[in-house]
Fold these 4 entries.
Entry 1:
Amino acid sequence: MQAQTIPTAWRNDAPPARTLSTEQAAAALHIRPQTLRAAICRDGHYAGIVPRKLPSRFLAWPAAEVARLLDGEVAA
């Protein structure tokens, strides 16, 4: 007897991008988490970094862009 497989609508073999929580991003940037939340509400970004909103309503900040900002580069 062969095992049946369930077809999926899409396949994503790419590794997930590393993200930071609002608290982790704020700690890395040496600011308060509320500063990040206020910037998102006011401008839609913080220093050019736009987080992804998760289904849980939390924000996922791209770690690579936070690291570039810490290195003094302009966010893409």
Note: The helical segments are 22-29, 33-43, 63-70.
Entry 2:
Amino acid sequence: MKLPFPDWILVTPIKVYTEIDGEDGVEEKLIFDDKCNFSEKSRTTLNEQRQVVELTGKAIFKGDIYPGQLIKGYIDLGGIKKTIYKSRKPRNPDGSIFSTELDLM
């Protein structure tokens, strides 16, 4: 069973870049250039070293924007560059990817 995604919330134009380690250093690759649901709600969390990290926003996309891969890199939001802190891919009851969520620093 697939849950319907509310397409009407996708209003913010965004570009998502992933960073791939290669022989010549880090290569940047554009993986998404469309609209998302963006929230600038700030919050704090602890990282693996128990240090406080301030998150400055969250971007939600319909479906899986980078199938089968982990997303690490940054987003470009109208000329503002934000680093991706964490990504999540919640699933539908049938096992398909419902959305991609990126926490931003």
Note: The two ends are 34 Å apart (CA to CA).
Entry 3:
Amino acid sequence: MTLDPVHFDGIARLARRIRQDVDTSDHRDLAETVWRDWLDPLREGGDVIVEPIGERRRRMVDVTEVALQDDPFPTQHGLDSGTINPTTFKNGLVLDVAHAAMSAVPSDLDLHRGRTVVMTVHSNDATTSLTDDWEVDDGGYVRQRVLHAPRVSRYEAAVVHELALYLAESEHACTNADVVDDLLLMDGPIYPKGLLNWTNRQPELADLLAEDERPRDVVENYLRLVERFVARDVPLAGFVKTPVSRSITRTVRRGAGNAPWVNDAAFFSQVLERREEVDGEWERRTDALTFTNWFVSRGGADRALSTLGDAFGLERELDPADYEVTFCVVYDPRTDVVYRVEAPAAFTRDEDRRERLLLQVLKGVAVERGPPKAVAKADSLARIGRTETTAIQEALERAFETERDTDYDAERWGVNAFGYGGAD
């Protein structure tokens, strides 16, 4: 025990010294104002970056009733990619290994066995030679390759991580697209937002995304994926478990001078939470899931593939508006968690289809008290745990005849030199 009661008391006194001019009720009132006055549509400069599809409204559905609904889509497939997180070695290599899998509900064991593995390697040694052709293993169930990452002076961890993660995910999706008959639910956004955010980070990463074919090839995979699903008239959507978008809060803060929420998810939680007064205290009502209408999003990472962006000059076979990100927000009061559901605009223009997509997600959340089953199964298949991560890193040490470049934090906390924890 390193903290005595006196230390806890001191921390509490420090907290009481933090002055807040606006209390929680004022935050809720401000959220109501933003919901009512700012989102129909939300503008940034002269551009519309968030606008409702149809009527802007909040809705609710009884948890038990929606859990008992029939599935709008008879079969559902999930997709996810997991990594060991960036690892640096004493020989100068920085790499990450990503592993993508697709799930099926009802189960399909052959499909579950199939995997796509990508190892992305960064080296400052110009003499390093890599063979990066696709190879097949496990009797044809596994496709794998090494990708030589673009050379950068900084941000090696971000480059190897995001290229490995999104190349594995997009390749596995494209390879297995024809297996999906009714609905594909991706675990996370429908586009590689970590990679797309390079445009909003440092100039070196923005230039890399604009000029290097390797990250552009990954983005192109997602465009081709949307086109294949549109051609087959089979919807795809993304279930974002931890939304981090700040497009709304950032724009409101610039326009109004105050937006106290950490991100858009925190804003929507105040918009969607239902409370009632019990014995003089306000308590959260947990009998119903609440959710918004669908919106079109063109801000932040969503801008590049919207009608406001040029998709980095990549060819788009469909109308650019078909690729735009549309989203709705679902709030589960039982766990006080906000989820963001995404889909390309091509699949949400039709009211009946977007209602069916939403109902499928609502049923899944109600039953699972978390991500829908297809998403949870894909996450389970693709996840690389701490024990497996350590074993892979040790195998790489033997293969490279070197050691990981560790520091004190890595020894004590189990994180590498870049601050990434082990994958869960």
Note: The mean pLDDT is 92.
Entry 4:
Amino acid sequence: MSKESPGITVSKKDDFSEWYTQVVLKAELADYAPVKGLIVLRPDGYAIWESIRETLDKKFKATGHKNAFLPVLIPESLLAKESDHFAGFTPEVFWVTHSGENEIGDKLALRPTSETLAYSMYSKWIQSWRDLPLKINFWNTALRAEIKATKPFLRTSEFLWQEGHTVHATKEEAEKEVLDILEIYKNTVEQELAIPVITGKKSDKEKFVGAVYTTTMESIMPDGKALQMGTSHFLGQNFSKPFEVKYLDKNNAETFAWQTSWGVSWRLIGAMIMVHGDDKGLVLPPRVAPIQVVIVPIYYNDKDADRVNTEADKVEKILKEKGLRVHVDRRDQLTPGFKYNEWEMRGVPLRIEIGPKDIDKNKVMYATRHIKQKLDLPMDKISSEIDGILQKIQDEMFEAAKKLLSEKTIKTSEYSEFRAAIESGNFVDAGWCGKKECEEKIKEDTMADIRVIPFDAQNSGKCVYCKGTSVTNAIFGRAY
């Protein structure tokens, strides 16, 4: 990566991977840590995560969920209780074997996910039907030994996420929870991050290990790869039985509970960078931008400085009173052009420029980051129109991302077209017979797997691979 230039030195189209890395580092969202596989989240990156977290947290609490905390260490004996689930994580587990120079006996895993730990506690806390539903969410980190190359926000050995774990008296209530959470995720990603998603189920081959089924939301990135944006799992009684999560029902009969688990991670930030960014750098949706509006005072002598700065202060006050996140760039040693480039690279949605001539005309100039449009705004209209301008930016960013998803989703029933579409970097909507053999052959042949079986999938009648009768259409794609 080029350290010499403060700007992005490669094109998104020509070298997507290098472009992404430069944007993350140069826009100061994150940096590589001294330990392989780990990253350090910088203030702007953390501010975006906080915004996502605050939105989800409100929605979780509004639907009766409570936050709690779990420790990071899990004994091996506990992990092995649900053997299928644990086997799925074994290659990724970090183990603690010593305390100082002494061996600790039962190995301790650094939490890859918290099902086993949470449910060993739930079995103690739940006695009666009166204790249900139990709806707990944990904001924490997970640690998984990353075998592939580190990619900030997308592939790291430790990542920020939330994981919800709920317990219900009935199957119907648990299944409703799974779908309710997926809808919360979908609305948050589409409305806050301006990224459209396709929701549906995973195939049995791709579902969460230990789940009865997994629901997912998937999106496609500009380089043609699929990104799983979040999942919500119906666990049935697959964990309640080995962990003895049971309760006495209203007839005093002992009954195993029904469970769900669900989560999203800071991978959402990676998706946002990839979907909206351009050759200048980051492009942030206004709702999650750490700075929504940057004000750049423009003057070239001391006489104008006081006048322009006074006006900048007035505009800042108006915007802050509206609850907006505003910054005034008062760095005298830098030219306006340098400042514009820097704030564009950092993705600030809206820039307001104020110079002596603007003050004379009782106006400001504003520039939108996403389409680089410059327009005048009368000074007395700032308060009444700025919210609408920011909302328009948010809406236009979502529409552009929807267009990308639509253009990169190809529907076909011919396998030769299927292969060509995958090779060109697309989602492919195609019929599937439901057999694992066909799914595996397609993966072997094209490196594409079933990303999602949409809830509203149309059945085209024939399996794209074997030409047998299809049970549904599915969206195929190559993943990161």
Note: The chain has a mean pLDDT of 95.
